[in-house]
Amino acid sequence: MSTSRRFLAGLLAALAIAPAVHAWGRQGHAIVAELAQRRLSPAAEAEVERLLAPEHTRSLADIASWADELRGDDSRADLAKATGKLHYINFRADDCVYVPPRDCADGQCVVGGLDRYVAVLADRTQPDAARLEALKFVVHFVGDVHQPLHAGYRDDKGGNTYQVQFQGKGTNLHSVWDSGLLGTHGKDWRDYAQELDARPAETMPAPIAPRDNVYAQWAEQSCAATRGIYPEGHKIDDAYVAAELPLAERQLRVAGVRLADVLNRALAK
């Protein structure tokens, strides 16, 4: 077999065993939701509890991955398809500058998704069912936009086509950041959230001018974070994990604080 054919075979094998792409995975999304819930105002907490009552839960973590789980629900296939592009944004240029017509045409990106569903959640004239659905999307999309490779570059589809070796298996960089890095911590999401919440308060990133779209700023900041996370030699080793896990954890903590702020504003009386 020629060298080129061996490379192609290896690449196809790696793609075949790569895990499905769900931003942060269930663990990461649950952590973001839990960190946010601990920071809800009394008014927001009461409204969250009221909206979640039909779900038989009070926990944002319980619905944090709902937007990903739609993809496996045949009865919600149309909604999954309609909202598929709202989980991410692919920047066209390496300057990470958000240009709406180019990067989010017709609102079809995570920035547009947040704009849309935060407005529905905040609108008390909307039916509770619509606001509950919006709550589920908002909790999820705030998590998504803080996963750096959900605000990555179009040329490698946010790291999805950037193949790596991780823990002896072939996968892609996007999947490593979705769940692989956090999985090296070895704790379940509840213990992990408690550990992160017990750390000193995180210094929040400075706003980026212009300040007319805060969700776009979050995407630009996540995009900027991708610049140093592509591993040399396409190999994720212990040194890489030690260097990059703190960034992933910081993104989770920042997302939790920001999600709480979004909910507190949207659900204020």
Question: What are the SSEs and their pairings?
Answer:
Blueprint: H1 3-17, H2 25-37, H3 42-52, H4 66-69, H5 77-83, H6 100-103, H7 110-122, H8 128-145, E1 163-166, E2 169-172, H9 173-183, H10 189-198, H11 214-225, E3 235-236, H12 238-266
Parallel strand pairs: 1-3
Antiparallel strand pairs: 1-2
Helix pairs in contact: 2-8, 2-9, 2-10, 2-12, 7-8, 7-12, 8-12
Summarize the structure.
55% of the residues lie in helices and 4% in strands. The chain is mostly helical and 269 residues long.
Architecture overview:
- Keywords: Disulfide bond, Endonuclease, Glycoprotein, Hydrolase, Metal-binding, Nuclease, Signal.
- It holds the Pfam family S1-P1_nuclease.
- This is S1/P1 Nuclease.
- Residues 1-23 form the signal peptide.
- GO terms for molecular function: endonuclease activity; hydrolase activity, acting on ester bonds; metal ion binding; nucleic acid binding.
- With 269 residues, the protein is mainly alpha-helical.
- It has one domain (3-266): P1 Nuclease, CATH 1.10.575.10.
- It is 55% helix and 4% strand.
- It contains 12 helices and 3 strands, in the order ααααααααββαααβα.
- It has helices at residues 3-17, 25-37, 42-52, 66-69, 77-83, 100-103, 110-122, 128-145, 173-183, 189-198, 214-225, 238-266, and strands at residues 163-166, 169-172, 235-236.
- Strands 2-1-3 form a 3-stranded mixed sheet.
- Helix 2 (25-37) packs across helix 8 (128-145) and helix 7 packs antiparallel against helix 8 (128-145).
- The longest helix is centred in the C-terminal third of the chain and has 29 residues, at 238-266.
- It starts with a helix and ends with a helix.
- Mean pLDDT is 90; it is low at 1-21.
